[in-house]
């Protein structure tokens, strides 16, 4: 299967790759109405790549049934307006079942979460991803890399076996390491997505990324698309103006080992009346003292 087959998918990765939140109802279940409304808001805001079951969607706190539901809701709302990249992970049979479900409902790609096993060897990383990619050869496969030890040569080895591995969500917080990794793996062979969102997008774009992930996009789609436009045109001063706009919000999300990564996004959405602020353990609601600051930032963005 040639890479030409995946042209649509590759184009979709070179964009704002939105990671939608999973809103919860008062009884703790997935709030399907709010979820659909938030997805429509992203689509109406010009977002054309959606990742259900990403980390901002609280992937690890959802049950298998909920993950399937979130995928189906996203596919239903996206229709022909967006390309859907479904997050899959956990043990290999679970990840394969999720990928097969994604294929069955019409998704075009899967993003494979970084294995959270305490013992990840480089060869084992290749084996894990190969098992998933080979199960769904028709789907584009995007490894989500958070492992600073992994070498670019290992990614190249995986893609030699599995030509449907077409893009990479690179989320090691080190721009120099990213530049080296991308060149060791093959800069032009993959679509490189800056996996640490807007704060890292300018530095990663300068090293070869052409897309970036975003959780902030749930709150203010225009802010994310403004940064993308600046980066696409090589206007780094303009991109850094957006960076300054989003800096404090992203610092709040990243504080204490990203403890409130999802919490801050949901707090902002709650302040705008778009969903409840509830998150699932091991995340926790934002303390009252910090809510006003998040609400103030979100209000400043909504024009």
Radius of gyration (CA) equals 18 Å
The number of distinct helices, counting runs of at least 4 residues, comes to: 12
Q: Tally the beta strands.
A: 8
* Span of the ends, CA to CA: 46 Å
What is the overall silhouette?
A: globular
Percent of residues in beta strands: 5-15%
Helical percentage:
40-55%
Keywords: Lyase
InterPro entries: Aldolase_TIM, DapA-like
Pfam family, one: DHDPS
Family: Belongs to the DapA family.
Structure description:
The chain is of the alpha/beta class. 49% of the residues lie in helices and 11% in strands. It has twelve helices and eight strands. The protein has helices at 7-13, 32-44, 64-78, 92-104, 122-135, 152-161, 175-185, 201-206, 221-232, 236-258, 261-271, 288-301; strands spanning 16-18, 49-50, 83-88, 109-112, 140-145, 167-170, 191-194, 211-214. The protein has an eight-stranded parallel β-sheet, with helices on both faces. Helix 8 (201-206) links the parallel strand 7 and strand 8 (211-214).
Topology:
Blueprint: H1 7-13, E1 16-18, H2 32-44, E2 49-50, H3 64-78, E3 83-88, H4 92-104, E4 109-112, H5 122-135, E5 140-145, H6 152-161, E6 167-170, H7 175-185, E7 191-194, H8 201-206, E8 211-214, H9 221-232, H10 236-258, H11 261-271, H12 288-301
Parallel strand pairs: 1-8, 2-3, 3-4, 4-5, 5-6, 6-7, 7-8
Helix pairs in contact: 2-3, 3-4, 4-5, 5-6, 6-7, 9-10, 10-11, 11-12
């Amino acid at each position: 299967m040639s890479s030409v087959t995946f042209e649509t998918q590759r184009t979709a990765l070179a964009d704002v790759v939105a990671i939608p939140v999973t809103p919860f109802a008062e009884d703790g279940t997935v709030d399907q109405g709010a979820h659909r409304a938030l997805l429509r808001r992203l689509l109406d805001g010009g977002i054309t790549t959606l990742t259900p079951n990403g980390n901002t969607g609280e992937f690890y706190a959802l049950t298998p049934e909920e993950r399937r539901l979130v995928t189906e809701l996203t596919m239903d709302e996206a229709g022909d307006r967006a390309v859907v990249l479904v997050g899959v992970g956990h043990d290999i049979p679970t990840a394969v079942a999720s990928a097969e479900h994604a294929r069955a409902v019409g998704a075009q790609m899967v993003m494979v979460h970084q294995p959270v096993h305490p013992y990840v060897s480089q060869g084992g990383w290749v084996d894990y991803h190969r098992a998933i990619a080979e199960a769904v050869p028709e789907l584009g496969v995007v490894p989500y890399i958070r492992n600073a030890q992994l070498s670019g040569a290992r990614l190249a080895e995986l893609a030699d076996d599995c030509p449907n591995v077409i893009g990479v969500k690179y989320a090691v917080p080190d721009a120099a390491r990213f530049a080296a990794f991308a060149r060791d793996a093959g800069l032009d062979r993959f679509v490189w997505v800056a996996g640490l969102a807007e704060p890292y997008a300018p530095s990663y774009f300068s090293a070869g990324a052409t897309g970036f992930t975003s959780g902030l996009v749930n709150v203010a789609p225009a802010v994310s698309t403004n940064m993308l436009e600046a980066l696409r045109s090589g206007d780094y001063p303009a991109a850094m103006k957006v960076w300054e706009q989003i800096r404090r919000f992203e610092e709040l999300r990243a504080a204490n080992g990203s403890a409130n990564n999802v919490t801050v996004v949901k707090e902002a959405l709650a302040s705008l009346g778009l969903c409840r602020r509830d998150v699932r353990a091991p995340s926790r609601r934002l303390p009252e003292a910090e809510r006003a600051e998040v609400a103030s930032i979100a209000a400043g963005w909504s024009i």
